[in-house]
């Protein structure tokens, strides 16, 4: 009995018991469905063992959408709790757990896989490559991310959720103040998924630098590829800091070291510094690829090449540099002194300049353009004014003296969401509609998409604009309740209505997918948007080998040149195509990492040792394995192209 008690939830509630039942029924339904339809072999061959960058991108996409609803459920519960004064829907402990998991899931396990989905799917196609540089590492990256996400998500039914906030500040996250294993889950889930992200960063950098099509110099790369390249450079420099911080936090909790304690030589502010040295560049890891998506979409639906290409590239490079020089603005109020605050106040406001350059570049691209208001373009247009509100309030927070008023209030919460939702979520939804036909061979319904875009945009304003006012009135963040005498009730009720609107919007996205699967025509062609870059030169959906012939590039808009300037994009002859073999090792290694993390969470040392040995065995197997890949014959390539092109004519 003592053995099972360690896995019990320390603060159970009816909602958690309902979640346990729902998880159990879902697992049973999946197993029964796969067995009944005899899909176990298909699942293993085509998905669990795949090294195809496109399928890995789609798996990232599915994971991100699932985590969007997982984190969204937390958000609805928080907004419901705060909707009226003195609410008893959640107690303080449950609110802390939801508050923590919402932020962690949305940033690490929703936004990150969303951008990874588009990086994986689009970048090799945009640069004319047939895969990424290291296909098996790419598969391992996904499975490490996925197992990290699953490890965090089982915490609220086995052992208890983390409750020290999504920033996991020590000493609040220490054993003294966070006694359940929830914080252990946080540390190992982020460690495992962060390792996968770091591997992706290295993989993407090598892919972009070494696998571009003939003629594609760095200054001829599409803007999304540039934004992905800069974001992955930030990943390579920022994520090792998080890795070290998580290891030190783990040692504090499991082995009684004193890295982040307030006594015995520890420094509690060391965690805050490490976290934000990673955490603020993380914002730009999310934002820059989103900016790249907006650039592609705005250029396509304005019927014009992107204005100020070189200044866009330069601004991203400047942003990547400045992103590492602003972390201290997250604790202006923690006693650093006027000089330090002044320096970081200047760097914080300086980073707004290259961001502003991008806004003007998009506006000048629109100027005199032949604008077509598709769903992706609508999200892009709604992004500009909404994101500007978030950006301007960021400059306000960047003034260290004023930040003493704003910092621990709902004003900061409003700013963050008004940056991340338009800047990242709108971009991901725009990209989802834009690249859906390339991924699946049919388009999402435009009418439903446009209605959804307006509902999400209006609901975003309803949900977060009131927080600016309640924050200025003094409502502190992280509170789980408040009294009627504060006057915050009206603002929080409006925010709750906005949150309901966002829920309706995201449900409509699911309905759009369902509706389009059933009714959308399948003969959309390879280029339904009249786009400008290489990925649209492939059939839809894209064949396994991407390009039957290697493309030759002469400008930044290779497909546009081929369509309207008579450039021969594929001058070479057909030839046998070499492709990597599928492998089950990345999936198996991911499962072992899951068991390794779970064992560490509960301090089960024998399973920890066994799984550690298993990790090294898998690594040794890959090191000693001889796998030359396989060739696709010219005849098979021609037959595939004929079938795909013929079905789209």
UniProtKB/TrEMBL annotation:
Q: Does the keyword Transmembrane helix apply?
A: yes
Q: Which Pfam families does the record associate with it?
A: COX1
Q: Which residues form the Cytochrome oxidase subunit I profile domain?
A: 38-554
Q: Which reaction does it catalyse?
A: 2 a quinol + O2 = 2 a quinone + 2 H2O
Q: Which cofactor does it need?
A: Cu cation; ferriheme a
Cross-referenced CDD domains, in alphabetical order?
A: Ubiquinol_Oxidase_I
Q: How does it sit in the membrane?
A: Multi-pass membrane protein
Keyword annotations of the record: Cell membrane, Copper, Electron transport, Heme, Hydrogen ion transport, Ion transport, Iron, Membrane, Metal-binding, Oxidoreductase, Respiratory chain, Transmembrane, Transmembrane helix, Transport
Pathway, per record: Energy metabolism; oxidative phosphorylation
State which residue ranges cross the membrane.
15-37, 58-78, 98-125, 137-158, 185-209, 229-251, 271-294, 306-327, 339-364, 376-402, 414-436, 448-469, 489-514, 587-617
> What function is annotated for this protein?
Catalyzes quinol oxidation with the concomitant reduction of oxygen to water.
Q: What is this protein called?
A: Quinol oxidase subunit 1
> Origin organism of this chain?
Lysinibacillus pakistanensis
Kindly list the organism's lineage.
Bacteria, Bacillati, Bacillota, Bacilli, Bacillales
